Amino acid sequence: MDNIQILGYIGALIVGLVLGLIGGGGSILTVPLLVYLLGYNPVVATAYSLFVVGTSSMVGTYQKYKKGLVDFKTGLAFSFPSFIAVYLSRRYLVPGIPNHLFSWGGYTLTKDMGIMLFFAIIMLFAAISMIKKGEPEDTQSSGQPYYKTFFQGVVIGTITGVIGAGGGFLYVPALVLWANIPMKKAVGTSLIIVTINSLIGFIGDIQTLDIEWFFLLTFTGISILGILIGVFLSKFVSSSKLKKSFGVFVLLMAGYIMYKELQ
């Protein structure tokens, strides 16, 4: 095992710690780690991220369920349109994106660059949300018709499918604002959606990519260990302060990705 692999596994532990501490952000760390440190191309990195985040979120779902913080009915209502969109995105949309998107002057935008730039833009919005708002407030707004939930699930599922993210940072505010679920239960419920979406999206990738199972399972196992440690430490650390600090870090990472891809 060389130094780069060791650093990668340390990164996997950090990914788990972040998930355990703040309930999200795993893919925001996983994709850049796989691309820039371990040298995977963005399509493979986003696929691996789906497996890591999906499996880790399954562990998180169980932890939240034991505390009564999971609304299965609402979670499954969002999951159905979302996992269809994620699967179709990974099975057909991502493989169908041309390797050469466009050229302008002497600049050429490739598929890999486009995926990473889109990922950075989503990171930017997530960072601003975490820095400005911290935890979303609970709301007393009424529920919504299912056709709106279906449409929202399709949109978020497509975005998360393209960037290889679990989408927890998108689903939590959606569950609070649209489904009228209290914040703590929204975090737990979002983990169901993230688990189903990520793992089904990864199934779409299995059909188009060669998977390095030993590395992926080792990386995922270390991330799960990090989650268990993070869940324990979360009892002693302010979640709102963590989210804002992590938001600043994500903002810097988004800027770094844009710099790397556009230079």
UniProtKB/TrEMBL annotation:
It is a multi-pass membrane protein. It is found in: Cell membrane; Membrane. Pfam families: TauE. One of its GO terms (cellular component) is plasma membrane. The keyword Lipid biosynthesis does not apply. Keywords: Cell membrane, Membrane, Transmembrane, Transmembrane helix. It comes from the Bacteria. Its main location: membrane. The chain crosses the membrane at residues 7-37, 43-62, 74-93, 113-131, 151-174, 186-206, 213-233. Belongs to the 4-toluene sulfonate uptake permease (TSUP) (TC 2.A.102) family. This is Probable membrane transporter protein.
